[in-house]
Amino acid sequence: MSFKTNYKEIYSIAKDIYLHPELGYKEFRTSKIVEEFILKYCPDIKIEKFSGTGLKVNLPKNSENKLNMAFIAELDAVYTPTHFHADSETGAAHNCGHYSQVAIALTLFKELVLTEEYRNIGYNISFIFVPAEEFLDLEYRKNLKQEGKIKYFGGKPEAMRLGIFDEFDFGIAVHSMGGKYEKRTVEINSDLAGFMYKNYTFEGKAAHAGFAPQQGINAYSMSTVFNVAVGLLRQHFEEKEMVRMNPVILEHKMGVNVIPQSIKVGTDFRAQSVEYMLEGAKKLDNAAKGAALSLSGKVAVETQMGYLPFKQDRYLSEFVMEEFREFQEIEDIITDRAISAAGDIGDLSYMFPCIQIGYSGFKGTIHGDDFIDEDSEYIFSIFPEFVFKVMKRMSGKIDKNKLYRKSYEEYEKVINELEGEGNEK
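^ thats the sequence. predicted structure below, dont judge the formating
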């Protein structure tokens, strides 16, 4: 077997998933495709299902292996109804490249099973197909949460809660790279921001704007003071933290002849470390409270946790770099390019070390309305072979003392601390 031999089948599956995108926790068709493929090549294997659409597959384990690795792929699409291949009913579109992750995971699975190469690798291998990486369609997820079906909006934190990742020592993921690259390229050590949503409801007092404005307390003016404070705060943040904030009006009760009584403003807060997320949340809360107090009003604070920052494991990335130096069909590598985008692999990396290898080969704007694969041979044949060789290179060489392990309970404590920074009346 070879990845070149697998290419036609794998690309057909990738194209099928791309043309039938599904939003998080709704990836029923995609999940079925994955299940049928796995059972086609390994009919007797056990598939553990979770969170409605998630799947976990353990390749036969070797009792002599001391380490367990999770290869993670994401099932969901993005809500972009203007995308040229968006679902006409749901607005879902595969403009983040998750469809290619799934296909890459499947070709790796097939190669490992049919060659039985997994028997020669010095750690046990599992494939985890996770729903709901994209942080969107939140009303649907709120309903799932209220029904007791999930606790977390993100698929990986939810899988962590369910114990899906309890056995693992490290994780490998892959992800499409946005942008245009002249050469076939991979990327390592691209750290991601963590983020949370901060919502502030300013409460004032209504009054006639012409007859007795002095009797009112202007909630809209409070939000204006808050926005000015947010702008002035920007110079107080560390540049290395790559802080991002985007305040917008979420709800209001306003008319031109009435002093505004209530307005709800929301902003995200993104940073590269948990510690700075905590610090930033406090600064934003103080700005909101000060804005309300300055005009004799009140403010209610709400915090919606997003994802934790993702610090790619530099030790594991060394194996990727070593393979790149010898692999002839990939010409370029990018390293240590932190960005302010986020992903729930940050949450998983809190429990154990993870890497996410980037791959080029796309055209259009990632999360835009024209994103699609361009160099399909590279994405679905050459790059999977590279990842396969990275996995083999790691065999017998990983020093367990250089890995770390934290429990879900420790993770939950951090999330509760971050969310505890808000929700004040």
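The first strand starts at residue 47 and ends at 50.
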